[in-house]
Amino acid sequence: MVNAHRTIRQFTDQPLTATQIHDLIAAAQHTATSHYLQSFSIIHITDRELRGQIAAISKQAYVDANGELFIVIADQHRAASLPEPADFVAVGADAPNQALGSTDKFIQATSDGLLATQNLVATAEAAGLGTVILGSILNDPLRLIALLHLPTLTFPLCGVIVGHPDQTPQFKPRMPQSLMAFENTYQPPVDWQDSLAAYDEQVHHYYATRDTNRREESFRHLLANGAKMTPAKRGELYRALRQQGFLTEA
Amino acid sequence: MVNAHRTIRQFTDQPLTATQIHDLIAAAQHTATSHYLQSFSIIHITDRELRGQIAAISKQAYVDANGELFIVIADQHRAASLPEPADFVAVGADAPNQALGSTDKFIQATSDGLLATQNLVATAEAAGLGTVILGSILNDPLRLIALLHLPTLTFPLCGVIVGHPDQTPQFKPRMPQSLMAFENTYQPPVDWQDSLAAYDEQVHHYYATRDTNRREESFRHLLANGAKMTPAKRGELYRALRQQGFLTEA
Fold first, then answer.
1. Are the beta carbons of A186 and B73 separated by less than 8 Å?
2. CB of A75 less than 8 A from some CB of B
3. pTM (2 decimals)?
4. Count of beta carbons in the 10 Å neighbourhood of residue B73
5. How far is the C-alpha of A28 from the C-alpha of A111, rounded, in Å?
6. In this predicted model, what pLDDT tens digit does every residue of A130-174 receive, in sequence order?
7. ipTM score here?
8. Pairwise CB contact (< 8 Å): A238 & B247
9. How large is the C-alpha radius of gyration of chain A?
10. What 3-state class would DSSP assign to A14?
């Protein structure tokens, strides 16, 4: 049952085998993909110094510890690298790759990459491995792009660490479906504030009773605080996308 | 094994039970989520007329046939709807929701929604159900947004149809890992053109021998043609994102 998911941030020092790594990437590859184009790539980080630099960007010490680190890349560069991309010329005239940089093509590659990420994660979890998905690699997108030598028409989406779990965290309760599952139109229930208050009690209980790092917390506070907690250089995501050749309509 | 994935586009007329639908949405909810914010929503399309309109947008007849149709929504609106979003005011002064419309928050909500989509899909497949993910609902984003009454700070990511399979399509071969899995930096192999040529033969064979709709096709041609095939109104994705209050840095 996929509901058994919990994020693992602490791994034993047992590395994955080459076969395991191959199979996880194969699982990512066998995800549904828009127009069969497989518009993503995966970079396996094996260089410890580089990994330390990525951990510094993410500001999470566990990123520099055990487990295999992968970075998932939205990739329209492959299509642009063909020696005779004749059809592109017909699209973009003087700028043959322009269409590949459209918001549409960015969203397509992002979808391919993120769906594949979750398939890799589900496959790892089904095999008894632990995973954590790292949005935090985007805390300094321009630096990460430089570190990974990402060419035009590629963009880093997230990191994933996979390894043998060395912790058993508790499950975190999710919001009631009435707050996020609607019928036919976007229509939260009239009493959604009451549902939110009830859920807040669950979240409060979770944070007050969990094994480590207990604190006073509520979902409402997390929601209200989310925008404020943004690290400064995440504000460069738009600029980074444009630098990489995406969002050409802007 | 997750590698057993194949997209199903034809379903029997046996509907899913309410419990199945609940469990699939629960699987989506239990996906890893950025900062525990669960920044996505799911709309279940049960109105046949609305579904016909969505099928018209997607230009795929099977979208209007059997199976349950869900639309996955990137959602920062929930956070903006709190009665006392005091912390937002500290961020955005006169425009309290501005930070929630940042490229960062769009990418965060997009990640949450797409990872959850794949978890729903993997859960359905593990239960013997079939699925298809629909990027095609974005062929006319402004119309879809209007049809679903999507408020500011929400955006449709994809559709998913889930049902009882009524076909057994062949597996589609994926590209060799040497073309998409790199170590430490983005670095395709020197002989990547040769690998592509070898893969092209596999793709050619697949299209030439599959059960239905056989044709002359190659991966190279699909790649080169991808940008050209874009339906006209997908060019409005950028405008639609801005209309919904995202990409505020633009």
1. yes
2. yes
3. 0.95
4. 25
5. 12
6. 999 999 999 999 999 999 999 999 999 999 999 999 999 888 999
7. 0.95
8. yes
9. 20
10. coil
Among B27, B82, B224, beta carbon nearest to A79:
B224
- Cβ neighbours of residue B113 under 8 Å, at least 6 residues apart? B39, B40, B72, B73, B74, B75, B157
| Interface contact B74, partner A, CB < 8 A | no
Residue type, A120: L
Contact partners, residue A16, CB within 8 Å, separation at least 6: A24, A68, A129, A162, A163
Per-residue pLDDT of B70-115, as tens digits, reads 999 999 999 888 766 544 433 444 444 568 899 999 999 999 999 9
Residues of B in contact with A7 (CB under 8 A): 32
Tokens of A123: 């496959």
SS3 state of residue A187: coil
The answer to whether the beta carbons of residues B243 and B250 sit under 8 Å apart is no
Instruction: Evaluate whether A43 touches B185 at the Cβ level (below 8 Å).
Output: yes
Strands (E), B82-180: 130-134, 154-163
Q: Is B225 an 8 Å CB contact of chain A?
A: yes
- State both tokens at A96: 């043959």
Contacts 24+ apart (CB under 8 A), B238-244: B238/A102, B238/A103, B238/A247, B238/A249, B238/A250, B239/A249, B239/B142, B240/B141, B240/B142, B240/B145, B240/B155, B241/A103, B241/B106, B241/B155, B243/B142, B243/B145, B244/B145, B244/B150, B244/B152, B244/B153, B244/B154, B244/B155
> Which residue stretches of B32-102 are H helix?
48-58, 77-80, 86-92
Q: Cα(A65)–Cα(A243) distance, rounded to whole angstroms?
A: 31
Contact flag B223-A118 (C-beta cutoff 8 Å) = no
Report the alpha-carbon distance of residue B44 to residue B58 in Å, rounded. Answer: 16
Contact A157, A73 (CB under 8 A): yes
With residues binned 3-state (H G I as helix, E B as strand, rest as coil), the percentages for chain B, rounded to 5, are: 50, 15, 35
What pLDDT is attached to residue B87?
A: 45
Binding-face residues of A in 166-205 toward B, CB within 8 A: 172, 174-175, 177, 179-188, 193
Q: Is B132 on the interface with A (CB under 8 A)?
A: yes
